[in-house]
Amino acid sequence: MSETVERHEFGAEVGRLLDLVVHALYSDREIFLRELVANAADAVDRRRFEALTSSIPAVPEGAAVRVVPDKEARTLTISDPGIGMAKAELATNLGTIARSGTRAFTQSLAEAAPGDRPSLIGQFGVGFYSAFMVADRVEVTSRKAGSDEAWTWASEGHGDYTLAPASREEPGTEIVLHVKEDASDFLEPFRLRSVIRKWADHITIPITVFRDGKDEPANEGTALWRKPKSEISEESYTEFYRHLGHVFDEPWSTLHWRAEGALEFTALLFIPGMKPFQAVENERESRVRLHVRRMFITDEAELLPAWLRFVHGVVDTEDLPLNVSREMLQATPALARIRRAVTNRVLSELKSRAREAEDYAKFWENFGTVLKEGLFEPGEHGKDIASLLRFRSSAVEGWTSLADYVSRMKEGQEAIYVLAGDAPEALAKSPQLEGFRARGVEVLLLSDQIDAFWPERLDRFEDKPIRSVTQGAVDLSKIAPPEGAQEEAADLSRLLPLLQDALKEDVSEVRATDRLVGSAVVLAASEGGPDLQMQRLLNRAGRGLGAGLPVLEVNPRHPLIRALAEKAAGDAGIGEAAGMLLDLARVQDGDSPRDPSGFARHVADAFAASLR
Questions:
Q1: By three-state DSSP, how is residue 187 classified?
Q2: Which of 165, 179, 301, 551 has minimal CB crowding within 10 Å?
Q3: Is the predicted pLDDT of residue 191 greater than 70, yes or no?
């Protein structure tokens, strides 16, 4: 065996490559440990497989990946009893990427079809070079299983690397990192264990961290989702759910299945039993964890759409290609199929659980607001989501669905009516409901901010249009009016033009309506414009320009309107009364009058006059 140390040049562009790897490909320095541990675990798996079909020695009993920090020497050692590498493999696996240069590597990556781009799981390459984020020198000593030779590859990550003969008693690989001064935390056993627990907790090969003179387990070593459901207790599911989500409740629903066929994957998902302390409405992305062969890759693969982001869990596959950094996934058809399958499975579970109204109400109160967001996304799920919606109602207690509403529609009723506002209690007392309630027409009460937006997007349910009662002129003439005598409607032919002229700066129209019973006036939105709740939200956000002026509807049977009609017929002025009517309508809808002080004085004067 030659004792000569061989020196090899990386190539002119190695500085650019290492800068790319160290500063651009990875967002967190701790990723290096994930990469090196993953390589070590895969080397053990490969040796186990090849030992079944060749004469190489089997993996020793109790084999483990060992992580050994040495504060005094400032080294971190990761060793494994895996397949190992021969001299040529060390040069190829640890030098190919660098030797080809940044430009050649990125060009070949761009030219390759997504399915042809090699996965970096279990391969030395760019992932290995993440070690230079925390080390100013890296030494790799390896002995190929079935060979007696061992070699050491070493580099400081600049312009070259060396290959030298070495000795190693058993097959496998040992990586020694000479840790930088600003990475001293990676010499702390506690820090190392926490990183391994985060990124590699469910690798089935044991991983240990050396502490106080002994190797301590650092990973659980059992991928729960890969076990048959029959072997998993509810307690085990709950424990894993709590560990995964850092929560203390019990899951509302547990979904565990294996998909087989052209694309195989295993999924273990949980729908929480309570809202998280951090409001899920504030998050915008799903955090379901993607694993490849039990190895945690990322929780940013968006395996579920944002409107299902309350779901926690793991999806594990073996044949999903990854891109160079393993933090950003290729947009492959395989990943798209996984996303579609997982989304459909969650929706199927929700539809099944929705049959139990009381149980489903718990879920809806926790996550209904988030689920409604799905109505805004283009795609095939709008109908599924619509069937899962639940609402408060002017006609029934508790929650009701759109399907139940349709089953209760009155003869002659052509639309599903909704009223959006800030609180269901206030909506239930709104004068907007008077004509509907008098005719026995149900109105759905929508009190989430998102409820001002989605009805227009959904538009219909079971061929019934969805209409806001505050938008446009609602025609209730086809629905039987309330029984009993009604006051004769006043002639408003003179009053309406006078009110229109007096309020021309504040309303777009003044018109009579038959949807009021006990109230004199009510506001409505013009046809084709946003409804009143949408206008309020736009005004609060400072974006009210262009929303249009509201419509003032008056009740021709109300004593106040009748009296004003008589006054108008006698050519008496009604300017002050017109302003009072508008302010009254605004107050009824929860808005402030245009002049709160003036409105208060008028009310006080009228109250005093009534007591004389």
A1: helix
A2: 165
A3: yes
Neighbours of 216 (CB within 10 A): 12
Q: One-letter amino acid identity for 189?
A: P
Handedness of CA 568, 574, 575, 581 (dihedral sign): negative
pLDDT above 60 (res 326) = no
The answer, as to whether pTM is greater than 0.70, is yes
Alpha carbon 453 to chain centroid distance? 19
Residue identified by tokens 């989500």 is: 245
C-alpha–C-alpha distance, residues 94 and 128, integer Å: 8
**Coil vs helix vs strand at 599:** helix
Among the residue ranges 114-118, 287-291, 398-402, 465-469, the one predicted with the least confidence is: 114-118
Domains and CATH numbers, the chain: 6-217 (3.30.565.10), 224-367 (3.30.230.80), 391-610 (3.40.50.11260)
* Residue among 442, 453, 428 nearest 536 (CA): 453
Are 472 and 526 spatial neighbours (Cβ–Cβ below 8 Å)? yes
Alpha-carbon distances of 108 from 90, 111, 123, 371, rounded to whole Å? 22, 5, 17, 42
How open is the CA angle 419-376-441, to the nearest 5 degrees?
25
- Model confidence pLDDT, tens digit, residues 17-70: 666 666 655 567 888 898 899 889 989 988 988 888 788 999 999 899 999 999
Does the pLDDT value for residue 298 go beyond 60?
yes
Q: Which residue has the tokens 């414009």?
A: 529
Q: What is the distance between the alpha carbons of residues 22 and 382, in angstroms, rounded to a whole number?
A: 43
In the chain, the amino acid numbered 130 is: S
Tens-digit pLDDT profile for residues 264-281:
999 999 999 998 765 555
Distance, in Å, from the CA atom of 311 to the CA atom of 447, rounded to the nearest integer, reads 24
